[in-house]
Specification:
Layout: H1 2-28, E1 47-54, E2 57-59, E3 63-65, E4 67-75, E5 84-88, H2 94-101, E6 111-113, E7 125-132, E8 135-140, E9 156-162, E10 176-181, E11 184-187, E12 194-202, E13 208-215, H3 221-230, E14 237-246, E15 251-258, E16 261-266, E17 284-289
Parallel strand pairs: 1-4, 3-9, 10-12
Antiparallel strand pairs: 1-2, 4-7, 5-6, 5-8, 8-9, 10-11, 12-15, 13-14, 13-16, 16-17
The structure holds copper (II) ion.
Copper (II) ion is lined by residues 183, 208, 267, 269, 278, 283.
Amino acid sequence: MASVKIIGLVVGAVAVATLVVNSTFAEDTRYAAPTTASVPGPTAKARVVRVSAEDFKFDAPDAIPAGLTDFRFLNKGPALHHMQILKLESGKTVDDLRAALRKPGPPPAWVKEVGGPNAPAPGLESNATVMLEPGNYALICFVDLDGPPHFMKGMLQGLRVVPATGLVAPDPTPDVTVTLLDYSYKFSSPIQKGLRTIRVTNEGVQHHEIELVKLAPGASVSDFMKWIAKMEGPPPGKPLGGISGIGTGMSEYFSADFTAGNYALICFLPDTKDGKPHFAHGMVQQFTVN
Ligand SMILES: [Cu+2]
């Protein structure tokens, strides 16, 4: 037993040393091609990665291992923020993305929306469990309720996902699946009170998101949408999170602690045909948790 412990300690020390070297390396080569350098391998559970946001920056790692990743996203506020993850294909970098975003119209084909935690109210934490392949990614905040989109104020940075070996974490077991369609939400079954894991699958042709809102007692989702348009007075609901934009065919997970009351799911993403937000096409749904 004793010798096993010693070996464990030595292995642990090597792992710590490797991590230190690797984080230095990651800073110096922020947008370099993925490397197999020794970031710890995946575990049998989703790896938890904590990110926080404030006006107007993300506090997030530069590099993480590939695999099933449970992002916990704390909004330190005071504004509303989300964390949209974009995969940058064809060797493109965050600088290429920055240049592309200066041009009007839809993003280039090498930008792939891979979800991420949607916006929690200031002081709250949201989450998203995402399967990440190695490659270059960007973390971006598109929230523009208070003026220009936040990425223009600094909320855009790179995330390098490096290859990892080891155990493959199985997908979470969902309580309910919510299917995204053009333009509606379909529930596999009603959401019950308590901490629930929701699988979100996009079967639409377009990109979609879920912004989950707990409505204030007596308020409806149309009260909330009216408030969003002007942002005057106290909000008739509280954003809790959900899943940021995902492309067609993709699935992702989030969890939330549901209490009795009314909730809403809203898609704010622009339509690829007319540019209007999807809620204007009917992609907004109220539901009740008993
Ligand atoms: Cu949508």
